[in-house]
Specification:
Length: 772
């Protein structure tokens, strides 16, 4: 009897637990590797006897052949992009210069997967052309003719065996992914397959395409500063150029200072500095045609290579481009540096003051078109040297130069300083200074010299603001606060991202023109470019609104932002500076919203910050920020009952020491009712340093950081301050989240319960049978 019941008992148990079904459908149990299949077939074949097959029927051997044909068909990769995702590789990216260096050293091979047409236009010496692109784009299946040809090229290729493979495509994306999949299918390890970052848009790669390496010494470059047959371009940062450069050189930077205050270089021909460089070359190609071009960078390496590539790609004969060996580090070069060709500098602010007070002459030599776009400085003399296309070497420019020589003597008659406004504080100012010198004005760099170049020219934001003609159209803090939430007003907070994150007006947009290094100074600064991109991309919406600018104090930041808005084509009559900025008392009192990213960054600092979650107990249990304190003001119906408010106040009063000295961040459902109620109750209890997490638990950033804590002893689960880290106020009581099962304990427990249930069923069945 016992023996008969035991199998039944186990069957009942397994059925009750779903195990029999699980055994049948278990993906791990069903999974058979390719090697398993092959081994099984082999063993079956070894034990086969010779069998006579009736006419018209298929033998097992023929069936086996059909199976093999099917297997060959299944080897086709029908979704190359999908297969790349399945491989789980990041492409093992490698910098273009490093790949080229390794390939030259013989430790790697470059496989160029671009079209034959693109390859023939420019390629890296020693690379293998194996296209994965057709006229319709990158291959999608491995049985496409182009993909088949690629596979034939790389399979068993002795040039690739034992080497690192560097894949070069158009931009380091789709083509490299397709090639990686096909190379891997051809037997090459993913560990040895690398994607060249940025592909053929990378300037190091584009330089290598040229196959040129012309150079001149520092001494040769210095000797050519006054030559009409040589153009010297300085590709260092504008800051370094300003500090000192070779006389008559043109500032065309491929280096810049990023938002972290570090020097960076344009790495692709798509980078903004590379685009500006290319635009200048194309617009002034006559400046370079028929002349030698000497490139000066920091050390005669990366910057010179990037500039050479950009010059050649935009119409300059590659054979006329030379790198100045050693760059700015060359002693001869460095010893010959001047500041703006020996000309004096004056700041934009000083020029503005001088023009206002009449203590200096200010000459604007920009084109009439440029002056019309930005406006002109009140009291300045408009005397263009640039033509309508911003060139200095055309017939129109020659006529303007003639007019300059004829008219300036009658306009500048007193012995006062002369300040020159040009586009960027370079070419136009240099030409104007030379002309003024020929007219007899004192252009000496010594103390008695009278001619100055305005730093950064019309790229300077202070000067741009002054030329805009606005007074800021100020609104006070009270008006700004009252405008929060209005449909016809947008508040642009131009303070640094960190300042915005730690406290801002509700609904305001973070559009910083400040960073750790201070306010943006020119239109070329990255902050300015990012701001301009935002207001340009959203112009259709923003230009219909009144724009309120909030900066630190209502001064330089607001002026910079106003200048950039003017340059972007906004009507300044609708742009307003909030007087006093974030220091205004009304603004400061209302700036109680903090960003989600700011809160996440401060979450671990429980000594100085406390995250207070006022959502319902159920919402908190489903997910909350680690270390947060649950003091629910919402009930299960999402209402704010008085009893919870009372319990909230009682808890805060009893634990006031836990709140004092900390910044309190309140998290509610959406950053509205609950946060407002909590702030009110906290302030009534004497806790004033309280901020609302904007958008509350609706924020995706907040949700991504939610956790659900398992049950823990409130006396043992402490935070860094020895405080209970899982408190949840529910009618004045402290509770913890429910236990969650992990690992193998859940199925074992379920099986045990199922077995007991089955045993009960068997006993019941047995008793029923006995009764009968």
């Amino acid at each position: 009897m016992k023996r008969k019941l035991l199998p039944v008992f186990l069957s009942f148990a397994l059925l009750a637990n779903g195990s029999l079904t699980a055994f049948a459908a278990d993906p791990v149990a069903d999974a058979v590797t390719e090697s398993d299949v092959q081994t099984t077939v082999s063993e079956d074949q070894e034990n086969q006897e010779e069998v006579t097959v009736p006419e018209g029927e298929t033998s097992e051997e023929e069936a086996s052949t059909e199976t093999d044909d099917s297997k060959e068909t299944s080897d086709v990769i029908t979704d190359i992009a999908g297969r790349y995702t399945e491989l789980g590789t990041d492409g093992n990216p490698i910098d273009g210069s490093k790949a080229i260096e390794n390939a030259k050293a013989g430790s790697g091979v470059i496989v160029d997967v671009r079209t034959p047409e693109n390859y023939n236009k420019g390629y890296i010496e020693g690379s293998i052309s194996a296209p994965v692109f057709t006229s319709d784009g990158v291959v999608k299946r491995s049985d496409e003719p182009t993909a088949v040809a690629f596979t034939e090229t790389v399979t068993g290729n002795s040039a690739l065996e034992g080497k690192e493979i560097y894949v070069l495509c158009n931009s380091g994306n789709a083509g490299a992914k397709a090639a990686t999949v096909l190379l891997n299918a051809a037997g090459y390890s993913l560990d040895n397959i690398h994607t060249i970052t940025y592909g053929a848009t990378g300037l190091e790669v584009r330089y290598a395409f040229l196959g040129t390496n012309n150079a001149v010494t520092g001494a040769e470059a210095v000797a050519a500063v006054d030559s009409s047959d040589v153009v010297i371009i300085d590709v260092r940062t504008t800051e370094n150029y300003t500090k000192g450069h070779l006389k008559n050189s043109i500032s065309l930077p491929v280096f810049y200072i990023n938002e972290n205050g570090e020097q960076a270089i344009a790495e692709t021909n798509k980078d903004s500095y590379a685009v500006s460089f290319a635009d200048y070359v194309k617009a002034n190609i006559s400046t370079f045609t028929g002349k030698k071009v000497y490139v000066l960078c920091n050390s005669g390496s990366r910057g010179a290579r990037a500039a050479t590539a950009l010059l050649a790609d935009n119409g300059v004969d590659k054979n006329t481009i030379y790198t100045i060996t050693g760059g700015a580090k060359d002693e001869t070069v460095n010893g010959s540096f001047v500041t703006v060709d020996g000309y004096k500098f004056v700041s934009g602010n000083d020029a503005i003051s001088a023009a206002k007070e009449g203590t200096a002459y200010v000459i604007d030599v920009r084109s009439t078109k440029a002056q019309a776009k930005t406006g002109t400085l009140k009291g300045s003399i408009s005397q263009s040297l640039f033509d309508a296309d911003n060139k200095l070497d055309t017939a129109e420019a020659e006529a303007l130069e003639k007019a300059f020589k004829e008219e300036i003597p009658s306009k500048i008659t007193e012995d006062k300083p002369i300040y020159i406004i040009c586009n960027s504080g370079a070419r136009g100012a240099q030409k104007a200074t030379l002309l003024l010198g020929k007219l007899g004005y004192n252009t000496s760099t010594k103390e008695d010299g009278k001619v100055y170049t305005i730093e950064n020219g019309a790229k300077g934001l202070e000067l741009l603001y002054a030329m805009s003609g606005t007074d800021g159209n100020a609104v006070d803090g009270k008006t700004a606060v009252a405008a929060v939430g209005k449909d016809d007003v947008v508040i642009l907070d131009v303070r640094a991202t960190g300042n915005y994150g730690s406290g801002h007006l509700k609904g305001s947009m973070s559009t910083p023109v400040f960073n750790a290094n201070g306010v943006a100074k020119t239109t070329d600064d990255q902050l300015s470019k990012d701001f301009t991109k935002y207001v340009t991309d959203n112009k259709a919406t923003l230009e219909k609104k009144e724009l309120y600018l909030l900066c630190n104090s209502g001064a330089s930041g607001a002026r910079a932002a106003t200048a950039l808005l003017k340059a972007a084509g906004y009507d300044l009559a609708k742009v307003h500076t909030i007087t006093g900025g974030a220091k205004d008392a009304d603004v400061k009192a209302a700036a109680i919203y903090v960003s989600d990213t700011h809160v996440i960054n401060k979450m671990a600092d429980t000594k100085n910050y406390l995250i207070l979650d006022v959502r319902s107990t159920a919402s908190y249990t489903k997910g909350h920020l680690k270390g947060s304190l649950s003091l629910p003001l919402f009930d299960k119906d999402n209402k704010l009952p008085d009893d919870l408010a009372k319990a909230f106040t009682e808890y805060v009063t009893a634990h006031k020491a836990d709140f004092e000295g900390k910044t309190i961040y309140v998290l509610c459902n959406s950053g509205a009712r609950g946060a407002a109620k909590a702030t009110q109750l906290l302030k009534e209890a004497g806790i004033t340093n309280v901020f609302t997490i904007e958008n509350g638990a609706k924020s995706e950033v907040i949700q991504k950081h939610f956790v659900t804590d398992p049950v823990a002893d409130p006396d043992t689960k402490k935070d860094n301050n020895g405080k209970d880290n899982n408190k949840n106020l529910n009618n004045g009581k402290t509770t913890t989240a429910a236990t969650t099962k992990t690992g193998d304990t859940a199925p074992i427990a379920a099986l045990a319960v199922a077995m007991l249930a089955a045993l009960g069923a068997i006993i019941a069945f047995g008793k029923k049978k006995i009764v009968k």
